[in-house]
Amino acid sequence: MPATGIPFRRLVVRSLRSVDFNFHVILDPLRLAISMPQALAMLLAWRPAAIFTTGGYLALPVLVAAAMLRIPVVMWDGNVVPGRSVRVTARLAGCLAVTFGSTCRALGRRRRPCFVTGTPIRDPGQIDRAAARTALGIPDDDKLILIFGGSQAVRRFNSAVADALPRLIRKVRVIHVAGDVGYPGAVAGRDALPSELRDRYRPEKFLTDDMTTALAAADLVVGRAGSSTLAEVAAFGLPLVVVPYPHAAGHQQLNAEELVRAGAARLIGDEAFDAEGLLAAAAILDDRALAGSMAAAARSLARPGAADAVAELVLAAAERRPFPDAAHVESVSRGPALGAAG
Prior knowledge:
This protein is an alpha/beta fold. It has helices at about 25-45, 60-70, 85-90, 100-105, 130-135, 155-170, 180-190, 210-215, 225-235, 250-260, 275-280, 290-300, 305-320, 325-335, and strands at about 50-55, 75, 95-100, 115, 145-150, 175, 200-205, 220-225, 240, 265. α6 (about 155-170) crosses α11 (about 275-280).
């Protein structure tokens, strides 16, 4: 955040990631208590017109302070079933924005307006398919698979790629996001390939700003089921083979099932994802009709204008005017349609 030039301040409160019984059990309530007046002092100094939050435990001090100061709050959540801390903090929001319609019911839409905006993502129109493939050196007649495991449990993906690579790379080109730990092994795997095949496999630590280019160039994505991943894949109209992260209260499993029901994704359980699972995923591209129907289903779910839709809600809150109607938010979130990926 500091690198972007955006002012950034931390609260004392920390994320509750550990379930172990240790000294944090005593310190965390103290951190939360200290963060309450800390957040109140910040808001008194800044006097924001509105607050945007994704809710949860870390947001609690700011949202309590906002309620005391009568600062309007817009909250967004991207999971089908929100977590307990999100449900608690939703009570402090004046307006809710969600990715899935069923989330409104879980968060109590009757007590406050709730809009289906989709997940805010990077602008999918930054680069078209032809320019993206040229930038990445991908020939027009080659198929490209983008493989990334997100920030959690990427080892499962790296192992599957390593075991499948000699067979996989003869069929398709691969961009593989391996993370810091997996990157040296991925490079070694590339160097072990026959020299004429090495340029067909591109391991990366992270893609960050190049993710848009990779998505625009891809024919198939293999990844986790985080809200942003699902939204970006849909926005680019790509078939998806999804391997939900098995922890975090099963949120990713439920998110993935929404795309599976729509026909946009195939689901492989984390424990079943190995080299054979990856090769089976790649075989989707051998069936042009199947890949095309999955891509069409993905596009039908896309909300590339989600960021604009959420921004309209935040501006309405900041200006203390009525929120736009649901039909308008729906129209903005759908945004301009993208062309077919294939």
